[in-house]
Design goal:
CATH architecture: 3-Layer(aba) Sandwich
Structural class: alpha+beta
Radius of gyration: 14 Å
Bound molecules: tetrahydrodeoxyuridine
Order of helices and strands: HEEHEHEH
Shape: globular
Number of domains: 1
Distance between the termini: 31 Å
Number of strands: 4
Length: 139
């Protein structure tokens, strides 16, 4: 389990990663950071597209980059910071990871990995996605 100081470093990395968002359509910047078992931090930000459905969330950019660049190295924690100074949050729900990202977390992170959501708290992965889609991988 990562210590408090690496988790607070991870939170700062997620906040800083908002600056890398490419979000000309929504203007809603999201930064994410994952901590790896080897101590490295990999960040991501949301990347939008004129063909809106091609947009990729910050969380997935971070998890996919970590998995691609550090194959076989476990993700031990995830931090997310969402929002924009010009966008009003109706509620904390506007800061929560979307369903697609939750499913990817379930695949690429241990179920007990700490998750930190800026302005919201530290929900468990199983509370975010109690009934994930799973396939057997042992055949
Ligand atoms: N977004 C994320 O980056 N993460 C989420 O979990 C939800 C939404 C992004 C996608 C899009 O660029 C913007 O937020 C507005 O939906």
């Amino acid at each position: 389990m990562p210590d408090t100081s690496s988790l607070s470093q991870l939170a700062q990395a997620a906040r800083a990663a908002r600056a890398s968002a490419y979000a000309p359509y929504s203007k809603f910047r999201v930064g994410a950071a994952v901590l790896l078992a080897n101590g490295e931090i990999v960040t991501g930000a949301n990347i939008e597209n004129a063909s809106y459905g091609l947009t990729c969330c910050a969380e997935r950019v971070a998890m996919f980059a970590a998995t691609a660049h550090h194959p076989g190295v476990r993700i031990t924690a995830l931090a997310v910071s969402a929002g924009d100074d010009h966008v009003q949050h109706d509620s904390d729900n506007g800061r929560m990871p979307c369903g697609a990202c939750r499913q990817v977390m379930m695949e690429l992170m241990p179920a007990d990995a700490p998750i930190w959501i800026d302005g919201v708290g530290e929900p468990s992965l199983s509370s975010l996605l109690p009934t994930p889609f799973k396939l057997r991988t042992d055949t």
